[in-house]
Fold these 2 entries.
Entry 1:
Amino acid sequence: MPTIVVDGPRIPSIELKRKMVEGLTDVAADVYGFDRKIIHVLIRENAPENVGSGGRLIADIHAERSET
Amino acid sequence: MPTIVVDGPRIPSIELKRKMVEGLTDVAADVYGFDRKIIHVLIRENAPENVGSGGRLIADIHAERSET
Amino acid sequence: MPTIVVDGPRIPSIELKRKMVEGLTDVAADVYGFDRKIIHVLIRENAPENVGSGGRLIADIHAERSET
Amino acid sequence: MPTIVVDGPRIPSIELKRKMVEGLTDVAADVYGFDRKIIHVLIRENAPENVGSGGRLIADIHAERSET
Amino acid sequence: MPTIVVDGPRIPSIELKRKMVEGLTDVAADVYGFDRKIIHVLIRENAPENVGSGGRLIADIHAERSET
Amino acid sequence: MPTIVVDGPRIPSIELKRKMVEGLTDVAADVYGFDRKIIHVLIRENAPENVGSGGRLIADIHAERSET
C-alpha cells in the first residue's frame, strides 16, 4: 500500500499519464520489493497561477519569458 | 486541530459529503478525545485518469471492465 | 484505493490506532460504497512544537495552560 | 527545496496569489536561512462543499449564516 | 518544480533511497519533459502501526502472518 | 481553517519554529482576510537521506560539498 503523489503542471494526454503511473509504480515496486498491485499513484495537476518558485508565480515566470 | 484528508473518486452528492465529514470527524474526535470543533476534514476528488493502482490508470481499469 | 491521511498529535496506544483505522475505513467504505479492502489509512503523529494554531505553537499553548 | 502547501478556499485574484507566494516564501527563506530560489509553494483551492470543520461542511455553515 | 511524495514502509538502506529518488525523478522528468534539476522527491517512512489497509493496521496483519 | 504544511529540513530551535508558525500564519490570514485563529500550520522535518533534488539525495549533495 505505498502511495506516490506527484504534484506538477497539467499533463496533456492520457498516454503520458499512463506512462507516469507505470513508471513510478515500477520504481517503487522494485525498491520496496513489493508486488506492483499494492502501489498507488495520485497525479495532481496544478495551474501555473497556483504554484510558486523562488517567491514568484509560475504564471508570472511564464508570462515574462514569452514577452522576451 | 487534527486534519483528515481523504483522497478518492468524485462524491456525487452533498449529502454524501456531509456524511463523510460527519463520520470521519466523529471517529477522530472519539480516538483523540477532542472536541469535534477542532477537527478539520478535506475531501479531494480525483479524476479516474489521475489515479493509478497496480501500475494502471483507474480510467483504463474501468474502460476494460465495461468492455467485457 | 481511497487514501485517508490523519494528521494529529501522538496517539498513545496501538488500541487507539486500531480504532482510528477501523473507524475511518468504515466511514469511507460506507460513503464511497466500496469494499473496505481498498481503503488505506495513514496516521501522522506530530510533536506539539511542530504544529501551530492561530499563529502559536501547540507546545506554547500547552505550556501556558499548565502554568495557570 | 522546502515546499509549502496551503489548503484553503478559492483565492479570487492573481494579485492575492502573488502576495501569498511572496509572503510564504519570504518567511520560509528567513527561518531556514535559505535562498528564496529553492522555496516552492503550492496553493490548493477547495470548494466549500469539500471542507469540513467541527463535523460540518463549510458550505452548510455558510448557508446557515446567510439565512439568518 | 514538480514534487513527488512517496509514503511507504521504512527503506532499510541509503542505497535503496538513492535508487528510489533517481528512479522516480527519471520517470517524472521524462513524462513532463523537464530537466531533472527541478524535480523534487520526499520519502516518508511510516511505522506499521501507523498504516491501515482494509481497516486493519499493517502491524496487526504482519503479526498474524508471522504467527501462522 | 486553512492549513499550511511546510516540508523542509530540521529546524534546530523552538524559537525558529515559533517564527515560522507566526510568519506563515500572518501571511495567510492577511491574504485570505481571515482571523489568525482559524489558520493551522504543520512543520515536517525531513532527514537529508529522505529528500531528493535533481535525482540526488540531499545527503549525497551535502557529503560531496563537504569533501571539496
Note: The CA atoms of residues 52 and 58 of chain F lie 6 Å apart.
Entry 2:
Amino acid sequence: MRGTTNVTVQESTTGADPKGGRPVLPSRGRQRPLGMGETTLTGGFWATLQQTNATATLAHCEQWMEHLGWLANFDRVADGTTGPDRAGWSFADSEVYKLIEALAWEHGRSGDQVYDDAVRRLTARIARAQDADGYLNTCFGHAGQQPRYSDLEFGHELYCTGHLLQAAVARLRTTGPDDLVAVARRAADHVCDTFGPDGLPGICGHPEIEVGLAELGRALGDSRYVEQARLFLDRRGHGTLKDIPLGRAYFQDDEPIRTAGTWRGHAVRALYLSAAAVDVAVEQEDPELLAAVERQWANAVARRTHLTGGMGSRHQDEGFGEDWELPPDRAYCETCAGVASVMVSWRLYLATGDVRYADLIERTFFNIIATSPRSDGRAFFYANPLQQRVPGAASDDDAVSPRAEGGSRAAWFDVSCCPTNVARTLATWHTYLATAGRHELTLLHYAGARIEAELGDGRIVSLEVETDYPRDGLVTVRVVRAPEGPVALRLRVPAWARGAVLDEGGRRRPVEPGLAAVDRALDPGEEIRLHLPMTPRFTWPDRRIDALRGCVAVERGPLVYCAESVDLPEGTELDDLTVDIRAEPLDQDGRVTVRVFRNHRRDPEPAWPYGTSADGGGTSTTASTELALVPYHRWAERGPTGMRVWLPIVHPAPVGSP
Amino acid sequence: MRGTTNVTVQESTTGADPKGGRPVLPSRGRQRPLGMGETTLTGGFWATLQQTNATATLAHCEQWMEHLGWLANFDRVADGTTGPDRAGWSFADSEVYKLIEALAWEHGRSGDQVYDDAVRRLTARIARAQDADGYLNTCFGHAGQQPRYSDLEFGHELYCTGHLLQAAVARLRTTGPDDLVAVARRAADHVCDTFGPDGLPGICGHPEIEVGLAELGRALGDSRYVEQARLFLDRRGHGTLKDIPLGRAYFQDDEPIRTAGTWRGHAVRALYLSAAAVDVAVEQEDPELLAAVERQWANAVARRTHLTGGMGSRHQDEGFGEDWELPPDRAYCETCAGVASVMVSWRLYLATGDVRYADLIERTFFNIIATSPRSDGRAFFYANPLQQRVPGAASDDDAVSPRAEGGSRAAWFDVSCCPTNVARTLATWHTYLATAGRHELTLLHYAGARIEAELGDGRIVSLEVETDYPRDGLVTVRVVRAPEGPVALRLRVPAWARGAVLDEGGRRRPVEPGLAAVDRALDPGEEIRLHLPMTPRFTWPDRRIDALRGCVAVERGPLVYCAESVDLPEGTELDDLTVDIRAEPLDQDGRVTVRVFRNHRRDPEPAWPYGTSADGGGTSTTASTELALVPYHRWAERGPTGMRVWLPIVHPAPVGSP
C-alpha cells in the first residue's frame, strides 16, 4: 500500500495512550502524530485560543445545553418521562458527546481536575439513559417517540453514536477505560450487532459513525469496529437511503466512495465520510480506498475550496456546489466543515507524509477554525462567507440564533454543531504541531512550544520553539536534548513561503516550499532558525472562478486579510473601492494596508443596472489612498460591519493574451 | 392621486366584460387595457406560443393533475373519503384553479367550446368539495386533516382561494357569471366573514388572496372584497405570522408594505403582494400605497434584477437576496416570479402610464415567460439561471422532477406552480399588446395583430400590425379604420432601441426611447412604420454586481443571447472562452455571433486555484474565432448543454479611471 507500510506506529492496544492522548492514532503510516505528553504550547496565537477555550468555551457550551434541556433529554429517557416535547433537534445528543470529548481532551492537556469532574458528571447522566442492549439515543425508541432506526435519512441516531465513540476515544487515551468507555463499547457493540453483515443493511444519513468506530477500534485494538466502519462505507453510494428533494448526493449516497471523483453534497457529511475512509484504508491496507480519498481531496481543493480553506458554497444544502462555484458572498464555509477538512487532511498527511495536506490544514486553522470563536470564546461563526454586503445585526448573547448567517458571531444556534466542534479541535491543537517518523521529526506548524518526541527508532528529541508566528516570520528551534547520531529534522516551509531562509549549523540557505531538512547530529543548546517571508502579497484567483473575476485578495503568511466597512471614511462603502494594484500591499508595523481608489457614485436615482457602457453604474475615481486591512479571522470583532476578502481592481489584468 | 385620476375606465360592474375579457381592469388609471375583443394575434412569435399553449400545454397540465390525484383530492372531500394520504402539497388546489383560469381565458380568446367544456367539467368537481359555509380546500378542515387555518404560515389555504377567485374573474369576463363564479363568491364571502375587521386577525403566508379579492371585487363591483384585500395588506409586516428559520422577510411580514424600501424574501410572494397593493391603491385612491410599490419596483429593478428580467437570486428561500447579489449560476429567476413581475409592472403601467414598466414587461416576456416552455409546450423550466456549468440530465417526460434545477425542462414538478402560470399568461398575452387613453392608443408590444380599440372618448381605432419582430425590427402599422379628428397614436420605443426611426405621414424621423407620437387624424389605408435597430450589442453590468465583473452579455432587440456548449468544437469548454470585445457582435442572416479566444488549459494536475500570478489557472490564447450564440429563451432545446449569458472578456475595461 502506497506510503503506509514503512512505519508501524501503534503503541498500545489497551486504549490508554502512553504519549498523553491524541485524537488520531493510526496503526501504520508515514508519520506518527505526537501525543499530548510530547508537546506543550508555551504561548502565542494558539495558546491563547486554547486557553480561552478551556476557561470560557467549555463551560459556555455546558451551560447552554443545560439551559436548553439537551442534557435533561438524557435524564428524561432514564426516568421514563420522554414525550413529544423533547428539546432540540434529533442530533442534540451529539453536542453533549462533542462537549465531553472536548472536556476529556482539555483534562488530558491541562491535567485540571475540573474537566475530569465535568466528564464524570455528564457521563453519569448519559449512562443512565442507555438501554439494556446498548442503544443510546434520546430521540428515538422510547415512549412517545418514533421507533429506533425508522428515519435513517435524517434521524441522526448513528451519527450521535459516532460522536459518543469519539468522546470515549478521548477518555481512553487520556485517563484510560472508565464508565464512558464502557457505555461507548456497549453502544458500538449494539451498532455492530444491529447493522453487521447479517443485520440491517442500512447506513446513517449523516456519516460519523464510521470515523467513530474506526478510531474506537484502533484505540481498543478491536478490528470488528473497523470492519463495521468499512461495511458502512461500502454500503453507501448505491441508493441505500431513500431519495430526497436535494438528491442522494446530499448524503453521498449517489456514488460509491471508491469511484467518486470529487466531494459533493453536504460538506460536513462528505468530509466525515472521507476521514473514516482514510482510517479504514490505513487499518485494512486498502490502497484503492486511500487513492480515492486522495483524488477527491485533490479535485475538491483545486476547484471547490475557498481561499480561506473553507468548503461549501451553497446555503441550500450546506453543500459543495459545482466546480468553480465559489461565490464569496454566499460562501457557506461552515465552521464544522473546516474541522472536518482538517480531520481528512490530517489523516492523509499521516498516511502519506505529503505536506500539501499540512498546508491546507494550516490555512484552515488560521482562517476558519480561528475565525469562528469570538475573542472571549462565548460566541461563534457558523458560516464563514468571504463577503458581507450588509452588516449583520448586533449579537444578542442571550438569544439562540436561528440561522447560519448574519455577519455576527452568535452565542448559540438552533443547530449548534460548530461551538463544540471548535472546542474539541482547540483542546487538541498542539497534537497537530509535529509528527515523528522512524528517524525523523517534522515540525508542521509554528507556535511557542516544547516538544519531547520519541522517534520511531526509540530515540528522544527535545526541542523548544520560540516564535511570534504568524505576527512574525522568525521561528527559532532550540535543541534541548539530542540523541546520539544523526536526526532527520524537518521544518515545513508553507507553499506560500517563497524566499524562506534556514539558518542552521552556521550557515544560512534558501529553502523551498515543502520540507526544509536538517540531517545531522544535533547539539544541545544549538538554535535552528527558519525565516518565513511575511511580506503581504496579492493573491489572484484562477480565471475559471467566475465569482472572483477582476478581484485580488491580500494574504500575509498563512493569514487571509479583509477590508471592513468600519475602517472606511464616512460616506464611503466597500462597493466604492477598487485596489490600486500598481502599489504592493504594505506591512507597517503589523498593520497591513493597500492603496485604494474611491469611486464616486453618480446614481441618485435607481436605474437599470445593465448598459452599453463599460463603466456600468458610472464612476469616477479619486487619487488612491491607504486602507488598512484586518486578518479575516478577526473580522466583525468590532461590531457589525461590511466585509470583503476579494477586492475589485482598477485595471483588471488580461485573463489571457493577446 | 398621482397618475390615476384623469381617466376612469371601468366599463361594467356586473362582471361580464364587453371587451372580451382581460385579467386586469382597474376602475381608473392612466391607461385602459384592451380586452380580448379588441386584439387578436395574427402570427409570429407570440401567436405560436399562444397556439402551442392552447393545443398542448392546457391538456398536458390537466393530464398530470389527474394522474397525480390532485383533481381527485376534490372528489375525496366531496365523498367524505379524505385521509392522511392526500396527493400533492398543500397548495395543489391552486394548480387546478390556475388551469381553470387558463382554460377560461383560452375559451375567451378562441371561442373553442372544448375549453369551455373543460372549465365546466373541472368546476363541477370543485364545486362538490365546497363546504356549506363557503370554505373550499382539500388539505385542511376535513376528516383526518388539520383544522382550518391552523397553519397560516405554510398551509396556503387563502393562497389557494386567491387563485380560485382569479379563475372566477376569467370566467366572469369571458362568459359571465356561472357555477365557478358562484363557488368563488361563496369562498370570498367566507374569507371576508372569517378574516374581516372583527374576525381572525391573520394573513396567509403566501400572498395571493389579496390580488384575487381585489380583482374579483373589481369584476363584481363589490368594494367589500377590495377592502378585505386592503385589510390583509395592512395587517402584514407587523410580525403577524410566526417567525420561521428563514425569517419573517421570507413572507414579507418583517415590514409593512407602505414603508418597505425594496422587495425582499420569497420573490413570488413579494410580487403577488405588490400586485395586490397596486390594485388596492388604485381602487381606494391611496397614493401612499402606490408610491410604496413604485419605490420598491425602482429599487429592486435597479439592484435585484437579472438581465433577463428574472427575479430571485437564492435557491435557499426562492428569494431576492441582497442588493447587487446577482449570481448568474445560482440565479433562481423562478418562472412564476417572472409572471408575478409582469403582474406588478402591468398594474403600475396602467396606473401611471410610465413605459419603464412596459420595458421590463417586454424583457420578462421574451427572456423568462418564453424561456420556460419547451417548443412543444410539454416541459418547462422552473428556475431560469443565466449560467449552467454542467449540462443537466436528459429530460424524462414521464417523471416528476423533484427540484427546481438541472438545466433541462421538466414535464412536471413536485412543486408545479410554473406550468399553469405560464399557461394563464400566454392565453392572455394579446391583452398586453396595447392600451387606450382618453384620446390615445398606445402600442406597447410588437406582434402581427389586429387591433380594434375604443378610446376613452368613445371613438374606435382599427389597426393591423405586421412585423416579424423580434427577428426583424420593422413594424408596420396599417390604419384600417380611423375616427374623425386627431388621434394620439403612441408607439413604444424600447429603452434599448437607440437609433429607432419612425416613418409616417411622408417623413422619416429619429425617435427616442419612450413613446413615439403620431398626433393627427389618421387615414384609412395609410401605413406607419417603426424601424427598431436590431443590431446585436454588448451589454455591460453595473460595476457593483460582483458576480458579473469582467463579463459582457450580448443582446439583440429585446432578446438576451447565450453561448451553449453544444456549439463549441470538441475539446473546448465554455470556461475556455473569452470574448474579443474589439469586434462588435454580428448578425449574419439572423445568426448572432461574437469573436472569441480559446484559452488553452495547462493544468493536467489539479492545483490550488489561488496564486501570485494574475493569469491564475494559466492560459494562453489562440487567434479569435467566431462563435454563434442562441437566444436565451431557446437554450437547452437541443438537449442538455452548458450555457453562459455573461461571457468573460479578454481585456476587462477599467471599472473607473485613471
Note: Chain B is about 30% helix and 20% strand.
